[in-house]
Amino acid sequence: MAAGLVARYAPPFRLVGAHFATGIAGLLVFAAALLASARGLEGHFFQARVLALTHLCVLGWLMPITLGALHQLVPVVFERPLLSTRLPYLGLACLVAGAAGMIWQFWHWGVYQESFVWYAGLAAAGLAIDVLHLSATIARSRRHGLTGANVLASFAWLLAAAILGVVLAWNLWHPFLAADHLQLLRVHAHAAALGFFGLLIMGVAYRLLEMFLLAYVDAWRPGWIALVATNAALGLLVASFLLGSRLFHLAAIGAGAVGIAAFLVQIRRMVRARARRALDQAFRHTQMSLLYLALAALTGAALVLVPMSAGVRDRLVLVYGVLALPGFIGSIVIGQLHKILPFLVWFHRFGPYVGLKKVPTAGELLPAPPQRLLLLLLHGAIALLVAGVLADAAPLRLAGSALFAAAALVLTYNLGVIATRRP
């Protein structure tokens, strides 16, 4: 990430910081709620606590941090300043207010009230403000390429997920849909998780590996195959949910496997071509996230291909969610936070002193031991949560939730150390 590009195009540090701080607060609330609910984390996914935890994880923790990173990366990567530095605050305020109301009503199962529809609409409006604003910024650039195609496709899926979420909220209040509500809920979940986060992670990963590992390659065919195959898998999944077609579901699994394999091939090429040979602790989270992606894909395939009892299916669905959200998406978000925040703090506070006095590098703003501790706690927590759900063992789920809460506290400490470092 060239310093000249950051200085010219990046938004104010406080804008990105506000999103990051909101996301960390959401993570701490999610960790506390998960710990409080760990013993009862079982059964079908359409229940109060599971839906509340899912939306708290996505809208409270993952989404604000992701949007904050996008407001930093989009202007720099596409070499165009944001159209406005005020609209993102409006989007964040709408998202937080709407998500808080939704999660509260999920938790207390007040989803059949009119107010739930308004909260869903407010959260969707916040997401739409950010998506349209960032899309307009990208549209003014000539530097689209593979990253731009992934980002714009992810925005389209996020808008679809947000609109469908409002429609589903309305359907709970006043049923009007002919389609099965649970099937549409599955479309909503996959559009957000695989459509938005999945495609976005793919596109942004290519550029971040270039920036942080100095990994430059000329061959991008696997990345384009991953983009096309993943979108095809999403379209086939939507069709399979709406039509109840096993054939479409099998085709979606095949397309998804091609997309994931092509993405991993592209990442492998970049890692092997890197000029910066040492891999830090932040990249270990990225490596683990790719493992969770593969495991989530295998779990999803098993849910379609393998005959099983209703109880086993319910447990596998919950495992699928753990692997996909705090596993795949959460791990890569945490890993990149440990790259993006140190760079921003270094650039804004230490950069002006380069050549005038000795300053640490961005990688030296946080010692290695707390990073290693976070790595152990987070991935130990996910392993225990998965084992506890699979075995229907409340003590394992409780232990995993406790480790996750500890990981959230260590992450907060790590980011606090970085954010308060000064020359």
List the helices and strands and how they pair.
Layout: H1 3-9, H2 13-37, H3 48-78, H4 87-107, H5 114-139, H6 145-173, H7 181-213, H8 221-243, H9 246-272, H10 281-305, H11 310-350, H12 368-390, H13 394-419
Helix pairs in contact: 2-3, 2-4, 2-13, 3-4, 3-5, 3-11, 4-5, 5-6, 6-7, 6-8, 7-8, 7-9, 7-11, 8-9, 9-10, 10-11, 10-12, 11-12, 11-13, 12-13
Can you tell me about this structure?
The structure is a single chain. This protein starts with a helix and ends with a helix. With 423 residues, it is mainly alpha-helical. The chain has a domain at 1-143. The mean pLDDT is 92. It contains 13 helices and no strands. α3 runs antiparallel to α4 and α9 (246-272) packs antiparallel against α10 (281-305). The longest helix has 41 residues, at 310-350. Helix content is 80%, strand content 0%. The chain has helices spanning 3-9, 13-37, 48-78, 87-107, 114-139, 145-173, 181-213, 221-243, 246-272, 281-305, 310-350, 368-390, 394-419.
**Number of E-state strands:** 0
Query: How much is the average pLDDT?
Result: 92
* Unreliably modeled segments: none
Shape: globular
Order of helices and strands: HHHHHHHHHHHHH
**Helix count, DSSP H or I runs of 4 or more residues:** 13
Distance between the termini: 21 Å
